[in-house]
Amino acid sequence: MLRFITGRLVLTIPVLFGVSVIVFLLAHLAPGDVTTILAGPFATEAVKEKLRISFGLDQALPIQYAKWLGHILQGDFGTSIANRRDVADLVFPKFVNTAILALSSAVLAYIIGFFAGIFAAARPYSISDRVVMGVTLILGNAPPYWLGLLIVLLFSLSWRLLPATGMTNIMGGGGAWDVFLHLIQPMLTTAAAPACIVARIVRASMLEVLSQNYVRVARAKGIRRSVILRRHALRNALPPIVTICGLQLGYLLGGVLFVEVIFAWPGIGNQLWQAIQARDIPTIQGATLVIALAFVVVNLVVDAINAYLDPKIRASEKAGAT
Amino acid sequence: MVEPILEVEGLKTHFKLREGMLKAVDGISFSLAPDEVLCIVGESGSGKSVTAQSILRLIDPPGHIVEGRIRYRDKDLLDLSDREMEKIRGDRIGMIFQDPMTSLNPVFTIGEQIAEGLREHLDLGKKEAQGRAIELLRSVGIPNPEERYRDYPHHFSGGMRQRVLIAAAIACEPDILIADEPTTALDVTIQAQILKLLAEVQRRLNSALILITHDLGVVASMADRVLVMYAGEMVEYGDVKTIFEQPKHPYTIGLMNSVIRLDDQHDNELRSIPGTPLVPINPPPGCSFRTRCDAAHAPCETEKPQAISVASGHLVSCHLMRSDGRQAGSS
Q: What ipTM score was computed for the predicted complex, to two decimals?
């Protein structure tokens, strides 16, 4: 197991290198000149040039990249062009907020997805299966900016149950309960699509496994249906489910942008959105890099879980150790 | 005559497909004495496996058992609840399947997969079940069963896996063992070992055995009685000697002619049956075999032949048997 994880860790190095190159280039290839935004449309070329030199933007791209990477490796993400603060100070607290939203949404999505998927797989092609799958099809494809507004309309405007925006109450808020109340609506919005995707994968994966010969053998042995579902089927259906769950979490960590904007959730997506509007290159790079890093880490964890689930990998480790 | 342990009467298992009704099994009847070996033979798609799975009620939609009776001791298996049926499966009737490579669950050790049935049916504790499972592994010829108990299926070869599956099927000492082409997926050298093991196990348990195969050599060496199937129907049924020495149905005769026999002194030409088997989706009226039969005549086109008893315990479904009893296709 340990050897497997070490191997996968080594493999992430080229991935991260590639990510850093793309992140760096993306910001530089994007149209628009940061100096125009900073100095205004009427600034002279001399002022702009001075600004460029002060940010090191006049140097060749490879040199800029090498310098940037060197700083990143030392934990220095640079200074935000838009508001002159350390990018690290700007990005990391926001990332924690995003992680709170993404993780809680993911947990909710997994729970709903698992139960809905197994419920449907246990009675394939029945009316209840079709209803569940129909709902997941609609809800899973509902755009979050539409679903989010719908939820706000219901919970905040019609029923006046929950706060519509922000993470804490401006007046004397900030406790865990307060954050939780603010979390419910964005969480529901965010969880909808992944819950449906997980439900569909759980169902498909379970049905696939239930058609395997070893399930028929288990039935021929007289094992009870519930035990077959739980023991024989679910255990074998897990790897694709774990993979999809990980992917969903990865997407959530980087992709809750719409939801963060709608609910004014102070997350990294929101931050990235503002940085893009301001052509704030260091912040864009920092935020993108953090998101990419989170994605890589999640995938690493998924691989480790799948390795643990596969007796072939576990056994080869044991054999390798002796 | 001994009371049969299993009686199948007019079993019909149909599959509702988009293309129409697939009559995979269409009116099969036979009986099984408590220590008898019955071989079911026929081409691929003739309904042998569906017959076997119907006995254990393992048919899933779109397939359904539409008619018939399956009497085990004093119960009709088709009347039992799902839960009652689960108690018969693996306990009183054990089954061995075709492909040992995919018949074991890859994420559990083979020991667990044998012990599981013991715990389910015999209410054994974990330790007892493990002890019994190790004994079973030993009895089917797995060396070092104590160590191999903890191994996963991917550590085993096809032949060894089939031994494990036999051990699992006989764990509760069933009255009836059903083996569905248990050697088809194995190397030729291993096939003989597995068949020998099956025969040995059957004798040791004194159980009945339904062996599905298309290997007539296996039939000759193991069967007491033989059921020949074609397109979901029974074409001939009788004891092994009669079927091999005096086959009556043109299809059975064709099967016998298509086998190389080492004891054949006349150096006869090996013959295949022309044409391809009928797929019984919305089958036309008349005899299913008529398109491939040399002796087909008028009634074969319109009327389904009924099983006719030509001698004691020898049934043939052929119009040629009707009045004159003349042997068909003797050319």
A: 0.85
